[in-house]
Amino acid sequence: MSDVAGISAVGPRRVVTVSPDFLLASAALAALIFVPVLRAHGALLFLAAGTALCARYWQRSIVSCLRHWYLLLLPCFCLLSFAWSQYPAQSFRYGLQLLATVIIAVVIAMRLSPKMFGRLLFVFFGIAMIASILFGEVRGDTGAWLGIYGSKNALAGAAATFIVIAASQILDGSAPYGYRLLAVFGGLIGCVLLLLAQSVSAMAVVPPAILIQLGLLLYYRMSSAERFVSVSGLTLLGLLLAILIATNFSALEALMLETTGKDATLTGRTDLWDVALRFIRERPFLGMGYQAFWVHGHAPAEALWAYFGIDGRSGFNFHNTYLSNAVEIGILGVGLQIFVLYGAAILTCVWAVTSHRAEAALMFVMVVIVIIISFVEVPIFFQFSLRSVLIICAFVYGVEGVRANGRWR
């Protein structure tokens, strides 16, 4: 890991030095955050900045990829799926783009410190939130804010992410006071936008994410005996809660549906899941090919678009990461995805518990959020995706953090 920015004193003057690695990694992350505005240009900027970052000290880039070779198994599998895909050109193209995305993410994680990574996310998401207030749109029928994202759910997801990032910056005791105060204002802006976006599901993600960070902060300050008692108590409480949910599932389900305004099919999600399971049974191990289902002209996809009124015939999925991806890359591909996603969760959790660092807690919480969302959406494992990059970076940071035994700065 290299330092990407620093301040050095030369005589009486202070000289700020900024590494090209820092600038290129920043440009790549900013491009993904502003994809809703930049669209194809955002993906192009990400590729350009990421490729330049990899080319700079290309030997180190190769070493970084070899060091974390297991993260390349998933995109390589997706790329190879063109051999059995219904649409081989489609699977080859998107598989190659996913491979490039993962490689760039690995190199970013090896060039940026995790603390700097979190601060860049805070800055760029903060700019996106301010832009959503100043230049964003509002739905005429419901009054829900769309921001610069063109969708209330997308704005709500970004606002929820920003709140969690801001909370981590506030709880970072090593950060300057002024910066932490700025994070407080940022968190308030995120809360306002989250409320204006009117997305109940996004609101539900924020409290547990904040509680995890606060819980880790308290854990860091406990003695060994206090930690044992606390962990034991939380484990028993979790078991009790699981028993209560299991014994009162029907009543809780009815309450949840009434609160969220959903019907018993979760607005058609269960119907989609039944369709997905049928296709999985047809080709269980390898699937139909990476991103080879939702293709124009593919009869089942066209039928589902028509049934659910998706006139644009894009931006639709099976609303479950595991089922949706099992349709495309089978059980084997989903196994690789589970390894990456849940491996990142375990590694960042161990890193957070052993290192007592705010950036480690942030990485763990970000992965937990994606895991929660993965059961009702498809937020990761496609090309030029910020969340996919976050998961890959979290995995790398977790591995390196555990290896360093919390000595990372």
From TrEMBL:
CC annotations in GO: membrane
Compartment(s) of residence: Membrane
Record key words, sorted: Ligase, Membrane, Plasmid, Transmembrane, Transmembrane helix
Gene Ontology MF term list: ligase activity
Spans traversing the lipid bilayer: 22-48, 69-88, 94-113, 120-138, 144-165, 177-196, 202-220, 227-247, 329-353, 360-382
All copies of domain O-antigen ligase-related, residue ranges: 188-334
Topology class, membrane: Multi-pass membrane protein
Main localization of the protein described in the UniProt heading: membrane
Top-level taxon: Bacteria
Pfam families: Wzy_C
Membrane listed as a keyword: yes
Protein name: O-antigen ligase family protein
The organism's taxonomic lineage, starting at the top: Bacteria, Pseudomonadati, Pseudomonadota, Alphaproteobacteria, Rhodobacterales
